[in-house]
Amino acid sequence: MKKVGILCASDTELAPFLQELEVVRSTEKAMLKFWEGNIREIPVVAVYSGVCRVNAAIAAELLIECFGVDGIVNAGTAGGMAPRVKLFDTVVAERSVYHDVAEDILTEFHPWMPSVYFPADRGLLSAAEKYAKAQDIPLWFGTIATGEMFVSGKGRERLCQAYAPLAVDMETAGAAHVCYVNSVPFLAVRSITDTAEGSREADFEANCEKASAIAAKAVLGLLREWV
Prior knowledge:
By secondary structure, the chain is α/β, with parallel strands linked by helices.
């Protein structure tokens, strides 16, 4: 059976998985704690990386190099961008992109990508699509844009025009980047904590726990289809 790396940015986002995880051992590397065990008979290595794409990249590389995972799912929360995406909806990233990196950096230099977008794994996406047909939580499939900031005002308008993202976060493209260069399947599943109508940082804090539980439910559902 495939071993899955579950990567979250925060302890709140990881908590729903740890509640389900039958822990066999825990290991500390690079100031991070990795929990190994099984969730509903699925071999899992779970970690929360801390916020920002570099932290997510560190955790993703360790999951691959030290724990030999067969795929990584980045789970947790995000800010809604598209008007149709509402509070506590869940976004499955068909692709991810850095919104604060010059567009030629990854196409003209390592890893010489064909575009600025990191594609999700087709098998994981297919599993998510199968799960979506049989569940009662709104799932949206599209783009997640990653950057090191909360987005508002003119920045929001620029992002929508450039990338038309369903959601924004601070980690997805960083983890996707690592999986891309290692040829490891990757998918991001993020539930919405805040939208354009609210105060982003305040709404995130208030809604993080509920959104994290929703994202975890979706991830565990799609993993049953994938493994």
